[in-house]
Amino acid sequence: MRSHTSGLARDLEVVEVLSSAEAFTLGGLGVNRVSELTGRDKGQISRVLGTLAATGLVDRDPKTRKYSLGHRFYSLSMRTREAHLALQAESRLSELVAQTQETAHLNVLRGGRVLTIKTIVAADAVRRSGWDGVLSNAGITASGRAMLAGLTDSEIELWWQEHALDDPLPILSIDLPKPAEPINPKTRRAKKPARSLKAFMALLQETRDLGYALSDEFQSGIVDAAAPVRDSSNLVVAALSVGASKDRIGDQTDQLGQLVSAAALRLSVDLGAPIVGPA
């Protein structure tokens, strides 16, 4: 057992580096590269990696001598409440993909970020795989707003004071396919970023009124719709979301929001949420 959390924090820094896209793409990282990325001494990094490898938290390829996250992380992750929630949500996500023909996500709120814990990819979707484990800015995502709207006004104010000035994660930009034929009818536009607590509260109040949130700020050319998921204590524990190309969805953003809201409601019922009125 360690007597100081600083040692554990330094070990976790190494683990974070090994969980990066670079490590995944290259099949692991060597001691020199981990040393470069952390700015720490190679001898120290070698000792840390050796200790982590002995516990199964990292694996070392005997040929390349590269380190990657180990099997024990998978074993531990499958015992988390996020893993249980993802398992419960899988069928509802699949239903949502079938209805919308778009990729669907299950997300949870972690401080000022939204963490994607389960993704079901649609066959012709703009948004492909690789989202699980991704962190996003909660304030500009539909999922973040859907979950924050479940807090009280005083809780939202505290959240704003603590996280509104968090370092922003990059907004994603992607190449969209050729525009599909837009579908007509009326709806409201996706909202722009809130620059003040008052404006943010107004966005969250609209989310409460509608039962879903819309955002076009997170990913260029994409409109996201998200709705809150509640557990047996009636607390918001997650959000379902779908992202659709603006060209593909046309003016039917509200219809998309309603489909996501209905799917989130069904998942809430699955989790034992006390739904009042027709579900």
Entry summary:
The chain is an alpha+beta fold. It is built from eleven helices and eight strands.
Question: Can you give a write-up of this model?
Answer:
The protein is an alpha+beta fold and 279 residues long. It folds into 2 domains: 5-75, Arc Repressor Mutant, subunit A, CATH 1.10.10.10; 81-270, Beta-Lactamase. It is built from 11 helices and 8 strands. It has helices spanning 5-18, 21-26, 31-38, 42-55, 71-77, 81-100, 142-148, 153-163, 197-210, 246-249, 253-270; strands spanning 58-60, 67-69, 104-110, 113-120, 135-137, 213-215, 222-230, 236-245. A 6-stranded antiparallel β-sheet has the order 5-4-3-8-7-6, sandwiched between helices. Strands 1-2 form a two-stranded antiparallel ribbon. A hairpin with a 6-residue loop joins strand 1 and strand 2. Helix 3 crosses helix 4 (42-55) and helix 6 (81-100) runs antiparallel to helix 11 (253-270). The longest helix has 20 residues, at 81-100. The protein is elongated and about 55 Å long.
In DSSP terms (H or I, runs of 4 or more residues), the helix count works out at: 11
Uncertain regions spanning at least 5 consecutive residues: 1-5, 169-192
List the domain count as a whole number. 2
| SSE string | HHHHEEHHEEEHHHEEEHH
Terminal Cα separation, in Å? 50 Å
CATH fold assignment of the largest domain: Beta-Lactamase
Indicate the mean pLDDT: 81
* CATH class category name of the largest domain: Alpha Beta
Quaternary status: single chain
CATH superfamily of the largest domain: GAF domain
Structural class: alpha+beta
Beta-strand portion reads: 15-25%
- Assign an overall shape: elongated
Helical amount: 40-55%
Named CATH architecture of the largest domain: 2-Layer Sandwich
What order do the strands of the largest sheet run in, or round the barrel if closed?
Answer: 5-4-3-8-7-6
Main sheet?
6 strands, antiparallel
What's the Cα radius of gyration?
21 Å
Number of strands: 8
